[in-house]
Design a protein that fits this description.
Structural class: alpha/beta
Shape: elongated
Strand order of the largest sheet: 2-1-3-4-5
Largest sheet: 5 strands, parallel
Order of helices and strands: EHEHEHEHEHEEEEHEHHEEE
Helix content: 25-40%
CATH class of the largest domain: Alpha Beta
CATH topology of the largest domain: Rossmann fold
Number of domains: 2
CATH architecture of the largest domain: 3-Layer(aba) Sandwich
């Protein structure tokens, strides 16, 4: 059965969840939409599987019995390049924001609606699919702005003093959109490349905060990535792409 019928079908997903009832529900739901889903009950099982194959997306429960789920998110983000969605029963917004800060692309709070889970899975997979396409199209290209250089094929950001930063895919995606459309007001939907984003979805704000900490001399009073209240964000700089030089 393949209700989605698009290029996302067949994506490899690994679920790290110790609750059997929840895990079986997630596996069944994702399988119905054509995703190849593998269930790991422990972080140790997941680590062993990573040595065999890197998934397209990992769903990670924060309340794992053998390791803190947040640590596993950080570990995965530092070493591998795949989508990450945090699954949490913690309702405090600080826990969800911390998950995004540590490298997750999105989060789902228990109890969750199956349709919402599928929508979030598809959203993250689309972002990574776009990223792969951008890398192929922009290989060897770089963008320069106020002394900084950004290399989209490798997610490298080089400061004016030569110091290098390795961006996550989510950060690199966001920065590339800003650089391609500099000096324009962009809505949250335009920055994420999606429509009908929930007004309570703060993932874009977290990513912008992370970019500001890398790019701005005073992130609390940004001069480069400006907030246009009621409208969106604006990247205020002249940008030159290597292909244009």
């Amino acid at each position: 059965m393949n209700p989605s019928g698009d290029f996302l079908s067949g994506a490899r997903i690994v679920l790290v969840e110790d609750d059997g009832d929840i895990a079986r529900l997630i596996v069944q739901t994702l399988s119905e939409f054509g995703f190849q889903t593998t269930w790991c009950k422990r972080a140790a099982e997941f680590r062993a599987r990573l040595k065999i194959e890197l998934p397209d997306l990992a769903l990670i429960d924060l309340g794992l019995p053998d390791v803190d789920g947040m640590a596993l998110v950080r570990e995965l983000r530092e070493s591998d390049d795949c989508g990450i969605i945090v699954i949490t029963g913690r309702s405090h917004s600080g826990d969800r924001i911390m998950g995004l800060e540590d490298g997750a692309d999105d989060y789902v709070t228990k109890p969750f609606d199956s349709r919402e889970l599928v929508a979030r899975v598809r959203s993250v997979l689309r972002r990574y699919a776009r990223r792969t396409g951008l890398e192929a199209a922009s290989r060897e290209r770089w963008a320069e702005f106020i002394g900084w250089r950004f290399f989209p094929a490798t997610n490298r950001l080089v400061a004016p003093d030569g110091d290098e930063h390795q961006l996550s895919n989510a950060e690199a995606n966001l920065l590339q959109v800003f650089l391609e459309k500099a000096n324009r007001i962009l809505t949250r939907e335009q920055l994420l490349g999606e429509r009908n984003i929930s007004p309570f979805d703060r993932s874009i704000d977290v990513r912008i905060s992370r970019l500001r900490r890398k790019l701005e001399s005073d992130p609390q009073h940004p001069k480069l990535i400006k907030t246009v209240y009621g409208a969106g964000y604006l990247f205020a700089a002249s940008v030159v792409w290597s292909a244009d030089a």
